[in-house]
Amino acid sequence: MRLEGSCHCGNVRFRCQAYAPVPFMHCYCSICRKTAGGSGSAVNLGARADTLEIEGREHLGVYQAKIREGDGGCRVSSARRHFCTGCGSALWLFDPEWPELVHPHASAIDTPLPEAPERVHMLLDSKANWVGVPQGVNEVHFAEFPEESLEAWHRRHGMLDET
Ligand SMILES: [Zn+2]
Ligand SMILES: [Zn+2]
């Protein structure tokens, strides 16, 4: 599915071809909620990196989060979170460990997205206390990461776009 996205001020516009366009996966980790999720979570989509076209590249900032380790150490995340330096909108995540993929934030997408038949709520162990998580039969909860990938979830629901 062809997706068009932009930041709020309009300095950055982008397009990409998404194999996983359904906004079903809500991440409540501290990085997502502080950098991209004012309501307490952020939603990532899956797209092919070689299809990403960017206008306004000079307005992009890149953030690599520092992640605290259990042993008290700290490492820098390989994931590069791209945002607009003019307005702060979170745009997409690119990780050179998976160079063929790019993960746009659903919040930056202007194209109407398919509605999710089931929603996944993950990294709930990192959730802020004031954030309510939707409950119900189609709301699936994980304390950490789910085992199923974005791609596998889309395939199971018959919503994978392989064009
Ligand atoms: Zn902007
Ligand atoms: Zn997250």
From TrEMBL:
Pfam families: GFA
Swiss-Prot/TrEMBL keywords: Lyase, Metal-binding, Zinc
CENP-V/GFA domain mapped to chain residues: 3-154
Residue runs in coiled coils: none
Source taxon at top rank: Bacteria
Classification via InterPro entries: CENP-V/GFA, Mss4-like_sf
Family named by the database record: Belongs to the Gfa family.
Record protein name field: GFA family protein
Species annotation: Luteimonas rhizosphaericola
